[in-house]
Inverse folding.
């Protein structure tokens, strides 16, 4: 192990890239000019990755490959899978998991945490405002038009007081780092963000695979998430209910995140129900049990607004519970997240979040947005249409990497198609410069290569705001790809937030 | 416990038992035929058609295959996904049920069931089936027994577990009657018990015992001489043999009463009434009566009664009958009309 490399090279215990020592598993790694999480521009391993790199070198490539196989097999055996829509066999796939963890030093995490708390606070104030006084509109910060034209703005809930005034209880905010390594918010998911079960399962797998590393490197634990989630759900129970019955409401086994729904229910020790298990009588919600019906007080619902109650929203929904919204309005049942949060996911609203932070909190955003152009503003629209081949154009209300144009990689036809779409419906489109997401060493076909990543931390907003250290690091496994969504060839990594900075 | 959860646990357990029993039936028939190498096609069909009949899918079978032989029948009963009673379908349905109640079963059960599912869908499984059917069926049976062991040793014996017991024993009682009925076509209905069996018949009755893992137990009780009446008596009326119909019904009845809390010999709902009555028939019936009635007819009636118990379980424990979603919507809307709508416009 005490290998002193040729002049100009560090010896391998420092974890330096380029060391010829056979233990140095990263010896051929090349950051290729991108911002790399692990390897600095100088070619040296960053300080907060050094302890990890030493251990990785000690393990060596063969043993690493051996353990990787074991993990894949374990995931398959445990059925840690997601469902793929449009696959006729209803096939389940394992969510590809990369064994090289993404590491965040303590001080960096502090900053992220502060930025996320600031953001969710502003978003909840914003939602309360637009469903009540609408000061932000009256004061001219956000044009009325954008609110009224938002697809997920629920007029039915104007003036309705949600329990504890909290709209978004669970938020998954996507963070990215560009070429200079600065964190930016890519989008907020204030409806039913998924992925947290993979945070927990990835950690379990890593602990089993590299037990010795955790102590040596000093990683903050994440396993209190289910307990914190349950605490928050209990907190929002209707007034006067001492021992509330909390359930997870799932669309059913065919939903892509069904694994997660059952996982969270099991971890919290509560029932998982489908729409057909619930029944509303006299504006109260009950579940059908073998001993008759029993009252339900809090619903962690993983069904979108549109499908939650066929008497109010989509009439054709068979997933929902007729009468649920009425019970909610009567204050007999609490929902997390509240109805009407979808407007915060609108990518046009995203543009205004920094302004919300300024307006409600009188602060500057700790984490910036990605520069964004609104197609419904004349100047921006002109710029967008003139620069389509340079920009990323997104539909305001799509997620999962759908409805998107990646200008620099698109064909002439695709660009022409988006030109027509943007001109026809400018309210529904925004554009952003193409960001070269930071990269991370990732184990691909037997060697370590750089792949683009993002980060989705999960924020719980209850009596206090709780964020489990880290979150889901998603990785675009296809070489050169910037799309990290699981539906489009993305995988995940464990995210290690350190107790210290090295 | 949620009604849907109870239902899923019941079916998970039932489908596992079903897969195991089909494996038993096919396996034993394959082995039996090793002794009859001289049979022509027609002779073979006479042995395979009853196997298809045990699962009650004769019609579907002849839609899919021109003739019944070892190849077509085993393929049909093992790998055909369009046969809902095949092993592959039963395992898939068991896993699907388990997926719905993952929070109710232990990780060990889930992982084993998932492993079995991945195994039967793998190329390796088909290869194993082709090269060494014995090992293949052994794998299925072993996995089912493993799952039963896990459910006994790792699951809390609460209400949900009792539903699993009901599903398992109901399926087992049904399948044991069907296995016993396999030879009814070759054994013409007689009013009295068949006397000393020919050598061929003895082999066949022995194969029935083997299907139920009952060969050793039977020998210990009655020596190696295979007497059809004793075989039937053993599989129907044994108090202690865990695959006998009486044993299965006893345990099903016990599980049903454990769910509701009804004391022995009494009932408070339909499934208990029906199972208690059937149990009494087994407690006070004799094999002589069975043969007097004709064993096939007798078994047919038992199967119908078991079906009724299954229906009654579903009816009793889904307390609130599922109304159609349209009725429910209508009802809710009537309620809501009495309440004022909220203002809907942004006011300036």
């Amino acid at each position: 192990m005490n290998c002193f490399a040729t002049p100009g090279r560090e010896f391998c215990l420092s974890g330096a890239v380029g060391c010829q020592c056979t233990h140095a598993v990263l010896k051929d790694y090349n950051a290729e000019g991108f911002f790399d999480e692990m390897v600095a521009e100088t070619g040296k391993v960053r300080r907060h990755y050094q302890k990890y790199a030493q251990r990785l070198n000690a393990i060596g490539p063969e043993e690493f490959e051996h353990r990787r196989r074991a993990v894949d097999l374990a995931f398959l055996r445990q059925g840690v899978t997601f469902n793929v829509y449009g696959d006729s066999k209803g096939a389940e796939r394992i969510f590809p998991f990369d064994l090289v963890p993404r590491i965040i030093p303590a001080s960096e995490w502090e900053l992220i945490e502060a930025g996320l708390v600031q953001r969710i606070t502003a978003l909840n104030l914003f939602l309360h405002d637009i469903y009540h006084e609408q000061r932000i509109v009256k004061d001219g910060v956000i044009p009325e038009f954008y609110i009224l034209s938002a697809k997920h703005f629920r007029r039915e809930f104007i003036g309705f007081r949600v329990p504890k005034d909290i709209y978004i209880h669970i938020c998954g905010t996507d963070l990215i780092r560009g070429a200079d390594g600065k964190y930016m918010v890519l989008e907020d998911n204030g409806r039913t963000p998924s992925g947290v079960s993979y945070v927990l399962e990835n950690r379990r797998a890593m602990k089993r695979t590299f037990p010795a590393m955790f102590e040596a490197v000093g990683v903050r634990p994440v396993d209190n998430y289910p307990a914190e989630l349950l605490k928050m759900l209990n907190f929002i129970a209707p007034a006067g209910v001492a021992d509330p019955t909390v359930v997870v409401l799932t669309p059913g086994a065919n939903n892509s995140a069904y694994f997660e729904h059952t996982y969270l229910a099991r971890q919290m020790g509560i029932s998982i129900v489908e729409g057909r298990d619930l029944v509303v009588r006299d504006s109260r919600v009950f579940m059908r049990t073998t001993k008759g019906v029993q009252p339900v007080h809090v619903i962690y619902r993983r069904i979108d607004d549109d499908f939650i109650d066929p008497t109010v929203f989509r009439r054709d929904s068979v997933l929902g519970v007729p009468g649920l919204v009425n019970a909610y309005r009567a204050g007999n049942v609490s929902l997390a997240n509240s109805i009407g949060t979808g407007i915060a996911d609108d990518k046009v609203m995203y543009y205004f979040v920094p302004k919300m932070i300024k307006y409600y909190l009188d602060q500057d955003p700790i984490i910036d947005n990605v520069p964004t152009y609104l197609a419904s503003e004349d100047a921006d629209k002109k710029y967008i249409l003139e620069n389509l081949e340079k920009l990323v154009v997104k539909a305001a209300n799509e997620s999962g990497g759908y409805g998107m144009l990646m200008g620099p990689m698109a064909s002439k036809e695709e660009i022409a198609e988006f030109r027509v779409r943007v001109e026809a419906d400018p309210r529904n489109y925004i554009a952003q410069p193409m960001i070269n997401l930071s990269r991370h060493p990732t184990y691909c076909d037997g060697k370590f290569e750089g792949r683009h990543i993002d980060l989705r931390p999960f924020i719980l907003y209850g009596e206090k705001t709780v964020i489990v250290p880290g979150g889901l690091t998603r990785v675009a496994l296809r070489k050169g790809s910037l799309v990290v969504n699981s539906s489009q060839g993305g995988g995940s990594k464990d995210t290690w937030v350190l107790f210290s900075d090295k | 416990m949620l009604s849907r959860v109870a239902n899923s646990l019941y079916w998970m357990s039932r489908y596992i038992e079903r897969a195991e029993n089909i494996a038993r039936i096919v396996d034993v028939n394959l082995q039996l035929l090793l002794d009859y190498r001289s049979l022509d096609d027609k002779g073979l069909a006479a042995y395979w058609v009853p196997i298809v009949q045990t699962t009650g899918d004769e019609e579907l079978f002849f839609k899919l295959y021109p003739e019944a032989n070892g190849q077509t029948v085993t393929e049909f009963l093992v790998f055909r996904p369009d046969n809902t009673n095949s092993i592959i379908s039963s395992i898939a349905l068991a896993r699907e049920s388990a997926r719905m109640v993952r929070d109710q079963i232990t990780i060990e059960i889930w992982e084993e069931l998932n492993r079995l599912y991945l195994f039967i869908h793998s190329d390796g499984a088909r290869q194993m089936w082709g090269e060494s059917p014995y090992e293949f069926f052994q794998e299925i049976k072993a996995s089912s027994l493993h799952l039963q062991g896990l459910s006994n040793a790792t699951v809390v014996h609460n209400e949900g577990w009792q539903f699993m017991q009901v599903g398992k024993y109901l399926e087992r009682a049904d399948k044991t009657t069907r296995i016993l009925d396999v030879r009814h076509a070759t054994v013409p209905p007689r009013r009295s018990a068949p006397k000393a069996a020919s050598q061929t018949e003895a082999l066949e009755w022995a194969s029935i015992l083997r299907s139920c893992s009952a060969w050793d137990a039977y020998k210990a009780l009655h020596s190696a001489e295979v007497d059809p009446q004793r075989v039937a008596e053993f599989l129907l009326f044994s108090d202690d043999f865990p695959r006998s119909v009486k044993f299965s019904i006893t345990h099903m009845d016990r599980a049903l009463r454990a769910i509701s809390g009804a004391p022995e010999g009494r009932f408070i709902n339909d499934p208990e009434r029906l199972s208690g009555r059937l149990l009494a028939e087994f407690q006070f019936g004799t094999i002589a009566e069975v043969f007097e009635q004709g064993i096939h007819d007798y078994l047919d009636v038992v199967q119908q009664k078991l079906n009724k118990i299954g229906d009654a379980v579903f009816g009793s424990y889904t307390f609130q009958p599922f109304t159609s979603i349209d009725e429910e919507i209508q009802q809710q809307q009537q309620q809501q009309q009495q309440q004022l709508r909220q203002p809907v416009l942004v006011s300036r």
